[in-house]
Design goal:
Layout lengths: L1 E6 L14 E8 L2 E9 L3 H6 L15 H11 L7 E4 L4 H9 L3 E4 L5 H9 L12
Parallel strand pairs: 1-4, 4-5
Antiparallel strand pairs: 1-2, 2-3
Helix pairs in contact: 2-3
């Protein structure tokens, strides 16, 4: 099983899915992390630099065709993962990951290894109330 985690430093989970610069993808076998791979993640800043501007109204809150495109670009690097862990995420990104068969989980655990193992052991809490 592969679990993606949004991160900026490779050790802690980012507090904002859209702004994180990388994913750390942990491969888990027999209840143990057997490998870790860092992958570039397209974030809001890079998409804006490429000319993908936010639209008015609901687009600003992560919904609509432009937002779907942005979230799709963010998901491209983790299509082989079962889940993505973050400490904060917008509702649009959350729903978009689900639509791509990637289970989003908003956790309050900052340490990557601790959060991955909590997920593997089915002890992680998805803090849906933290979505914005």
């Amino acid at each position: 099983m592969k679990i993606a985690v949004v991160t900026d430093d490779g050790k802690t989970i980012s507090q904002h899915f859209g702004r994180a610069q990388q994913y750390l993808v942990a491969t888990v076998e027999n209840g143990q992390i057997v490998s870790r791979e860092r992958r570039d993640k397209v974030g809001h800043a890079q998409l804006h630099a490429q000319g993908h501007e936010h639209q008015e109204s609901s687009e600003q809150h992560g919904y609509g065709p432009a937002a779907d495109h942005r979230h799709g670009r963010m998901a491209e690097a983790i299509t082989d993962c079962e889940t993505v862990l973050s400490r904060g995420m917008g509702m649009g990104a959350y729903e978009n990951m689900k639509a791509r068969n990637i289970r989003p989980v908003v956790t309050d655990i900052a340490d990557i290894d601790e959060a991955v193992m909590a997920y593997v052991n089915e002890q992680i809490v998805d803090h849906f109330e933290k979505l914005h």
